[in-house]
Structures are given as C-alpha cells and as structure tokens.
Amino acid sequence: xxxxxxxxxxxxxxxxxxxxxxxxxxxxxxxxxxxxxxxxxxxxxxxxxxxxxxxxxxxxxxxxxxxxxxxxxxxxxxxxxxxxxxxxx
Length: 89
What we know:
alpha+beta, Nucleotidyltransferase, domain 5, five-stranded mixed sheet, 2 helices, 5 strands, about 20% helix, about 40% strand
C-alpha cells in the first residue's frame, strides 16, 4: 500500500473510509473528532483488501468504516457507464 500521513496513538478511536474503484482501493483514517491521520491507495486484490483493513486498524480502534462503491457497481450493472441522474432520480 502507498500511504500518506502519520500513525496515530494506540487505543484512540478512529473512523475509516474506503473508496472502491475498478483497479484501486483508497482508504483513509480520521480521528473521532475528524482529524486526518492517514490515507493509502492499493490495487484491488483479495490480499490488498485485507491489507486495507489492517491499515485502518493500525491507527486505532476502528469504530466504523464507510464504503463508497457506487461507481464500481454501476459500471458493472451498466456496461455503458454511469447513468445521468435526472430530477426524478
């Protein structure tokens, strides 16, 4: 994983965010008051998913992880690419 940021103190409460793309995973860790701790990007392989979880846990006690995967799923469901959103949804 390619990481940026600093490792937080052990035992602190942190939140993770993971954005899934077709070829990469981007993970970020913030403190429970919103302070940026670190972020990293890696290829989308089974081993790298495991590494991303370990990366998040290395920065503290993970309270929750938010996952953004909308575009990955939409591109798989609609091979022509993302649909445009209209006023009706």
